[in-house]
Structures are given as C-alpha cells and as structure tokens.
Write a structure and sequence with these properties.
By secondary structure, this protein is α+β, with helices and mostly antiparallel strands. It has helices at residues 31-36, 52-67, 122-131, 144-154; strands at 9-18, 21-29, 38-43, 46-49, 71-81, 106-114. Strands 1-2-5-6-3-4 form a six-stranded mixed beta sheet. It is elongated, with a radius of gyration of 20 Å. The relative contact order is 0.18.
Length: 162
C-alpha cells in the first residue's frame, strides 16, 4: 500500500522465510503513527517490550529531530505467523479497512531523519508577500516541531524581541 496523507504510512508485505513465518509486514511513515502499532522495539538484536522508558526515549529523539527541522520517518515490522499466513496466502492491501492481516503488535525498528531544506528563494518570497500585506500560511504533513522549525527558517514565524 503506497503512502498517503490520510494514513500517513506505507505498507509492504515481503516473502521472508523464518522459523515461524513465510512473510513479514513492513510499515514506514509518520513516527507517531507507526509507534502506535508497536508493542516491542528492536534493541541490540533483541525484541524488547515497549515500556515507559522506551516511550520516553522515542519521544525525546523524535522531538529532537523535529526541532532541528528534520523530516522524520518511523519503521516497523511484523513477522506473520506461518500457521495462519501460509505460502499461498492472498493478502489484501488496498486499504486499511479491508486488510486481512493484523495491524498490531509490530516491532519498532527505528527512526531516520533527513534534511530537506527549503529552496534558497523561499525566505525572500515569504518576506516579499508579507511586505505586500499577504498573510502567509504553511500547510504540511510534518509533525508540529518540524513544521515550526521550517516555518522559522523561512520567515513565517519570527521571533520578536522586546
């Protein structure tokens, strides 16, 4: 299932033989969305239940990336039990409303952040519009900390000193 702005994630099911599975479901997308599907994290090669400490670490790292204006993606996986999802299983992945596999108990595998800086001309264009009396707004699918950092970089949000 490709990424879309409603679900805020993309999903793929890949044939991957393991002791208890023939397939693994992988999701990537908005970190806060991906995190909600997870009950475990991959930590130093082992699966660990998500506890308050893991949640706190996730939130801190995600916030730090966002405040730096970095685009952040979360990644998770779910090996699908081979007794239910046999080798010829026909997966339905067109929309979450008709998935025929679970969207819970995923294993959170990590975050990645990337810099996607605005074009050099954007701050100038923002300033020009504002000087003409145009109220500039930003519409984005980014997390609030990322959106705020980018808005500051391009001059939509300005820090006024007294």
């Amino acid at each position: 299932m490709p990424f879309n702005s409603t679900n805020k994630y993309a999903l793929s099911i890949v044939k991957s033989e393991g002791p208890d599975h023939h397939y693994v479901a992988y999701i990537k997308g908005a970190p806060e969305k991906i995190w909600k599907y997870c009950t475990r994290v991959l930590n130093e090669g082992k699966y660990k239940p998500i506890d308050a400490d893991e949640k706190k670490k996730f939130e801190a790292v995600n916030l730090r990336f966002g405040k730096n204006g970095e685009r952040v993606l979360g990644f998770a996986m779910l090996p699908l039990n081979k007794e239910i999802y046999h080798q010829d299983y026909q997966f339905i992945t067109s929309t979450p409303d008709n998935f025929n596999f679970p969207m819970e108990n995923f294993i959170f595998v990590g975050l990645i952040s990337l810099m996607d800086p605005p074009k050099e001309s954007v701050p100038y264009a923002i300033k020009k519009c504002q000087s003409a009396g145009i109220k500039v707004i930003m519409v984005t699918g980014d997390q609030p900390p990322t959106a705020a950092a980018i808005a500051k970089q391009i001059g939509i949000i300005t820090m006024k000193t007294n």
